[in-house]
Amino acid sequence: MAHSAQDTTESLLARIAAALERLAPPQEPLGDLDAAEAFVWHAGRSALVPVPRVNRVDIALLRGIERVRDILSDNTERFALGLPANNALLWGARGMGKSSLVKAVHADINLRLAARTGKASLKLVEIHREDIDSLPVLMGLLRDAPDHFIVFCDDLSFDGEDTSYKSLKAALEGGIEGRPANVIFYATSNRRHLMPRDMMENESSTAINPGEAVEEKVSLSDRFGLWLGFHKCSQDEYLAMVFGYADHFELKLSREEMQAEAIEWAATRGARSGRTAWQYIQDLAGRLGQHLA
Question: pTM of the entire structure?
Fold first, then answer.
């Protein structure tokens, strides 16, 4: 009888253990890092999902941002070669090519690496804004991987009671292990300090020491060694973007007609930017029956 009771207890414990394993499955490995040059981080599964084809434009097509392009490219190349490099914050006007530049630089540096070493060993990993508190986990997984990684967060900002910025601060510089030597973090934002002014002012008004409260918020941006500003473009710069795209895709329309249409297109949207130029080019190519490939 005692033996039967013991068997029942062991069976019950085994079922409980199996149920707990299902609730908390073991951490998945990184998978095949040679499967792609770019990945998306899925925080819920602690997994990197390969991206077979990255949505990006050639670096030569990015006009009006030559200075920041060269700075980011140089920084990225040094990092890919194992030399010291900085985390980068690309901030400023919407539609001026911040995220496009990150993806274009990644592709361009990999082409250079492949020509020099025969292998494109620089990986791009996108982490979504809502998963930023899992950044320390991601960096821990990448630490011992053989490749170099750009961890990229597009449109990064913090609002209200969001405290996940503390995870970002720790992961970038302040953690006990520090940032892995094979990982660099690039982010884009419309805000230079990643937080709205009213959020910082509210912290200042309610804190015992207002100066320290604001410093806590602003110091997040200090974790980025590179601050690259993107500003609204002039009409000449906007038209240079339009003509650059048109020449690259061999769109058949006179310069005079294209200029008039592009100016009207921007006026109807109330903005001149690289994004506006690309949207006009898509419309023009569609009307001309030409593919953008």
Answer: 0.79
